From TrEMBL:
Pfam families: Acetyltransf_6 (PF13480), Aminotran_1_2 (PF00155). Its cofactor is pyridoxal 5'-phosphate. InterPro entries: Acyl_CoA_acyltransferase (IPR016181), Aminotransferase_I/II_large (IPR004839), AON_synthase_class-II (IPR050087), BioF2-like_GNAT_dom (IPR038740), PyrdxlP-dep_Trfase (IPR015424), PyrdxlP-dep_Trfase_major (IPR015421), PyrdxlP-dep_Trfase_small (IPR015422). GO terms for molecular function: pyridoxal phosphate binding; transaminase activity. Residues 658-770 form the BioF2-like acetyltransferase domain. PANTHER family: CLASS II AMINOTRANSFERASE/8-AMINO-7-OXONONANOATE SYNTHASE, LD36009P. This is Class-I/II aminotransferase.
Length: 808
C-alpha cells in the first residue's frame, strides 16, 4: 500500500470545527444587553452558565469594573507604545503588587500565548533540550517548535508519565546543559493535575532538569494570594522553575504573568523577549482592573472567595457521585469532564442541555483525541446550588437519550476513556432488527459470485485475490508477515446486501504517516531495534491492496444503520485485538461520508492520488497517442519512445525458479528506496504464489547488453500485474534496479508497457493505484484524490511524529 500523506493539521481542525458549527455547538454568539456571569443568552434564550473560566467571578466585581472605567477616562482606550520604550503610568503599581503576590520577580505579558512565544526562545539556550508533556497546552507546544530553527531537540512523553520522563532525561543528560520539561499545572480539559512534588523529587535526582509550567487554569482559585496550583504545591519557587500565571480568566482582568526566581534568567528575558519587546502593552483599562484584582488577591478576601468556590465544587462532586455519568477525573478543581466518546454524541448532548437551559462547553479535537469528545463543565461562584443540582439531573436524564440517538452506549464511552465498566441504570439500547451481519475469517467462507458482485473490478481484492493474500500472509516466521482477515456483509430484512467490506489486523510502522526524513531517522534506530515505533492496526483493506474497499449502497434507506452495525462489529474486534488505531481507507472525497466519519470519531488524512485509465481503446500505439494531450505526447516522444529500444520486453506468467530472488530484490529496492511508502517488506514466497496463480503476470524489462557495461542482458525492471475478475488490469507493484533506473527511464517505460499490455489483452480499465500521479497522468491516467479516516487510541504517536518532524 502507498503511504498516506500526513494531513495538514489545520485542514483536520477545520473539518471537525465545521461539523460542530453545523450542529450548533461551536462559534456561537452571546446576545442580550447585559451579562452578569450567572446566565448567558444564546439565540435569545437565557442559559445557566457552566462554561466560564472566570471561576471566582471577579470579572463582574464592581471594583474591577470601576477601576477599568476610570482608567479609560483618565488615560484613553490604549497606550500605543512598546514597553521597551516606556510603560503606562499604572504598570509600575501592577508590577509591584503582582511581585508582592509571588515574592519573586515577574514580567507582565500581553497574553499567555505571546508570553510563551517571547519567553521560551529566550529561556532555552542552544545547549538545552526540551521535553513536552503530550497534553501541555497548544500555545506552549507552538512556541517550543520555534526552537527547531536553532536545532534544539524537542522530545515528547505521554501525559504525566514520570518513568518516560526519567528515561528521556537519562538519554539527554550527557549531551545537553539543561533539560526543560514543559507541562501545565492544571490541565484545561479534564481538570487533572501535574504531579508537582514527584517532579521536584526527580529534579533533585537530575539537577539538569528544569521546569516550565503553564498554570493559567490553576490561577486565583487556589494558593497563597491566589498564586495558583503550582505555588500551592511548591510554596516557594525554585531557581529551576519558570511559571506562567494569568491576569485574565479567574483573575478577572487581562494579560499574563511570568514568575522567575533566577535573577540572571529574569534579566535576560525582560531585556529582550520577541513579542515582549514588540507587542503593544496592556490597555489602561486592563491594567487598572488587574491592579484592583491584585489588591483583592493580597487581602484575606481571596481565601473567602476560594472557599465559596470550593463549597460549590464539593457540592457538584457530591451530586455527581450519586450518578452513573462517566466523569473522567474526580478532583477538587473547577473543571469537570463528562465523556461522550463520539463527536456526534457530544453535539447531541450539548444541544439537549441547552434546550434544558444550561450552557456547557464541548471538548473536541484537537483539545482532546477525536474519540474522547465530551462536555467540559466549569463551576464558578456565579453558580448556585439549585442550578448545579438541576444540571446534574438534566445530564442524568439526557445522557442515555444522547447515546441512543447516536447509536452508541455507555460501555463504549467508558472504554474510550479507559474507565472501568459501570452500568447506566437508565440506559436505552438501540438495535436494528432489520439488519443482519455475516462475519467470516476467510474468503473461502463467502460465495465467490457474491463477493465478486461487490469487488470484481477493484484492485487485488476480488475473491481470487483475497485467497492469494490469505495464503501469502499466513504461517510466516516474522510477525509483520502474518495478518488476520475479517469479512463483513450486512443485509436488510429481505437479505439484500447493504454493505460489504474486509479488514486486516497487521503490524504497521507508525511512521507510515510521517515525512520521509522522519522515517529515515526512525529506520536508523530500527537497525538495532527492528520493531521500534510499530504497532498493530485494524485497517479496512490491507497494506497490499488499494482501491474502494467498502461496498455501500448509499441509496438504501438503511445505509447509516448499516454503517453503525459495522462500527459495532469493529468495536468487538477492538475489544478482542486492542489495535493502536482503526483505519478506514481509500475514499473519494464524498461530503456525506466525510461528515459521518468525523461525527463518529474518525479524523481525515489525505492519501496519495490514485490513477485510473477507463475505457481504454487500444488498436495500436498511434491510436493510443492520439488520445493523449499534446503535453503527454511530447513526454512520450522525449522520455519513452527513445528508450524502448534499450529493452527486451518479456511477459511472464511464471517466474523461473532461478529468477525468484532477482524479482524479489527488485521489488525490495523500490520499497526500501521510497521511505514515503514506509511499510514492512512482504514474504519472499509471495513471488512463488504469484507465479502459481493464473491471475498474476509479470512485465519484465531486460536491458540489452549493448546499453550496459556487461556482456549479457540483465533484468532491470518488473511490473507485478494482476488481472481481476472484473476485467481490470492492476499493475500492483513495481521493482527496479536503481543502477539503471534513471539513465534508461525504467519506470516510465514500465508504465507505457503496462498500458500496451492491458490494451493488447483487451482490458478497458487499468487501475494504477496510488502515488506517482504526475507520472501516471503522462500516460493517460485520470488522477483522483483519495482520503483515509483514522481513529487512534490517543494522539500521542501522531503528535510525537509531528514533533520529530519539527526536529529534522
Amino acid at each position: 500500500m502507498a503511504k498516506i500523506r500526513r494531513n495538514n493539521f489545520l485542514d483536520t481542525v477545520n473539518d471537525v470545527f465545521t461539523d460542530a458549527t453545523k450542529q450548533g455547538v461551536l462559534h456561537l454568539y452571546a446576545d442580550g444587553d447585559i451579562f452578569t456571569g450567572r446566565k448567558i443568552s444564546v439565540n435569545e434564550k437565557l442559559l445557566f452558565h457552566f462554561g466560564t473560566t472566570g471561576y471566582l467571578g471577579l470579572e463582574q466585581d464592581k471594583r474591577l469594573k470601576k477601576a477599568a472605567a476610570e482608567a479609560i477616562y483618565r488615560y484613553g482606550t490604549q497606550f500605543p507604545l512598546s514597553k521597551t520604550y516606556i510603560s503606562h503610568p499604572l504598570y509600575r503599581s501592577l508590577e509591584e503588587k503582582v511581585n508582592q503576590m509571588y515574592g519573586h520577580p515577574i514580567i507582565i505579558t500581553k497574553n499567555t500565548s505571546l508570553g510563551h512565544m517571547g519567553v521560551i526562545p529566550s529561556a532555552v539556550s542552544d545547549q538545552d533540550a526540551v521535553i513536552l508533556d503530550h497534553q501541555v497546552h497548544w500555545s506552549v507546544q507552538s512556541a517550543a517548535k520555534t526552537l527547531k530553527t536553532r536545532s534544539v531537540p524537542i522530545e515528547m512523553i505521554r501525559h504525566n508519565s514520570l518513568n518516560m520522563l526519567e528515561d528521556k532525561v537519562k538519554k539527554l543528560s550527557s549531551k545537553y546543559r539543561k533539560i526543560w520539561y514543559m507541562a501545565d499545572g492544571l490541565y484545561s480539559m479534564y481538570g487533572d493535575e501535574a504531579p508537582i512534588l514527584e517532579l521536584m523529587e526527580l529534579s533533585n535526582k537530575y539537577p539538569q532538569l528544569h521546569f516550565y509550567f503553564d498554570d493559567v487554569h490553576g490561577m486565583s482559585w487556589t494558593g497563597k494570594n491566589g498564586t495558583g496550583f503550582i505555588m500551592s504545591k511548591l510554596k516557594e519557587l525554585p531557581d529551576n522553575v519558570l511559571l506562567f500565571g494569568t491576569l485574565s480568566k479567574t483573575f478577572g482582568a487581562s494579560g499574563s504573568v511570568l514568575v522567575c526566581a533566577n535573577k540572571k534568567r529574569y534579566n535576560k528575558i525582560k531585556t529582550f523577549g520577541g513579542p515582549l519587546t514588540f507587542s503593544a502593552q496592556l490597555e489602561p483599562a486592563s491594567v487598572a482592573a488587574a491592579i484592583a484584582s491584585a489588591e483583592i488577591h493580597l487581602s484575606d478576601e481571596i481565601y473567602k472567595l476560594q472557599q465559596d468556590l470550593l463549597t460549590r465544587i464539593n457540592f457538584f462532586n457530591s451530586e455527581l457521585a450519586k450518578t452513573d455519568l462517566p466523569l473522567i477525573k474526580r478532583n477538587d478543581s473547577p473543571v469537570f469532564y463528562i465523556g461522550t466518546g463520539m463527536p456526534i454524541t457530544g453535539y447531541n448532548f450539548v444541544n439537549r442541555l441547552m434546550k434544558e437551559g444550561f450552557f456547557v462547553n464541548l471538548g473536541i479535537f484537537p483539545a482532546v483525541p477525536i474519540k474522547n469528545t465530551g462536555i467540559r463543565i466549569t463551576i464558578s461562584r456565579h453558580n448556585q446550588k439549585k442550578e448545579i443540582k438541576a444540571l446534574v439531573e438534566a445530564m442524568v436524564h439526557h445522557f442515555p437519550k444522547a447515546l441512543a440517538d447516536t447509536f452508541t452506549n455507555n460501555d463504549r464511552v467508558r472504554k474510550a476513556f479507559n474507565l472501568s465498566k459501570k452500568p447506566l441504570h437508565t440506559a436505552i439500547e438501540y438495535e436494528s432488527e432489520a439488519l443482519s451481519v455475516q462475519t467470516e475469517r476467510s474468503i473461502s467462507s463467502i460465495e465467490k459470485s457474491l463477493w465478486n458482485s461487490f469487488f470484481a473490478n477493484h484492485g487485488v481484492f476480488d475473491w481470487n485475490g483475497l485467497q492469494f493474500l490469505e495464503q501469502t500472509f499466513s504461517e510466516n516466521q516474522k510477525p509483520e508477515e502474518n495478518w488476520e482477515f475479517y469479512y463483513f456483509i450486512i443485509r436488510d430484512q429481505l437479505g439484500k446486501p447493504v454493505l460489504a467490506t474486509y479488514f486486516t489486523y497487521a503490524l504497521w510502522k507508525e511512521d507510515m504517516l510521517a515525512p520521509a526524513s522522519v522515517s529515515q531517522n526512525i529506520e536508523n534506530i530500527r537497525l538495532k531495534h527492528p520493531y521500534h515505533m510499530t504497532s498493530y492496526v485494524l485497517a479496512m483493506g490491507s497494506l497490499f491492496t488499494e482501491g474502494s474497499h467498502l461496498y455501500l449502497d448509499n441509496n438504501h434507506p438503511m445505509w447509516q444503520d448499516a454503517m453503525h452495525r459495522l462500527f459495532k462489529e469493529l468495536e468487538k474486534l477492538d475489544d478482542l485485538l486492542n489495535p493502536s488505531m482503526i483505519v478506514l481507507r481509500d475514499f473519494d472525497n464524498v461530503e456525506i461520508l466525510n461528515e459521518f466519519f468525523h461525527n463518529h470519531g474518525y479524523f481525515k488524512v489525505s492519501m496519495p492520488e490514485a490513477g485510473m485509465i477507463e475505457n481504454l481503446q487500444w488498436t495500436g500505439v498511434e491510436n493510443y497517442l492520439s488520445s493523449l494531450s499534446s503535453k503527454s505526447r511530447r513526454h512520450f516522444k522525449n522520455d519513452i519512445a527513445p528508450f524502448e529500444a534499450h529493452f527486451e520486453v518479456e511477459i511472464l506468467n511464471k517466474v523461473p525458479s532461478n529468477q525468484v530472488e532477482k524479482f524479489y530484490m527488485l521489488f525490495e529496492n523500490v520499497r526500501k528506496n521510497n521511505l514515503g511508502l514506509n511499510t514492512f517488506g512482504f514474504p519472499k514466497h509471495m513471488i512463488q504464489l504469484m507465479s502459481a496463480s493464473d491471475e498474476w503476470e509479470f512485465i519484465v524489462l531486460i536491458l540489452k547488453a549493448s546499453f550496459v557495461d556487461t556482456r549479457k542482458d540483465i533484468p532491470v525492471g518488473v511490473m507485478f500485474c494482476y488481472k481481476n475478475e472484473g476485467k481490470t488490469y492492476v499493475p500492483a507493484f513495481v521493482g527496479m534496479d536503481y543502477n539503471y533506473a534513471f539513465n534508461h527511464q525504467v519506470y516510465r517505460q514500465l508504465l507505457f508497457q503496462t498500458v500496451k499490455r492491458a490494451g493488447e489483452l483487451g482490458f478497458k480499465t487499468i487501475d494504477f493505484g496510488l502515488t506517482a500521479g504526475f507520472e501516471k497522468r503522462k500516460v493517460g491516467a485520470e488522477i483522483r484524490e483519495k482520503s483515509a479516516y483514522i481513529q487512534a487510541k490517543d494522539n500521542f504517536s501522531l503528535e510525537l511524529l509531528e514533533m520529530m518532524d519539527a526536529n529534522k
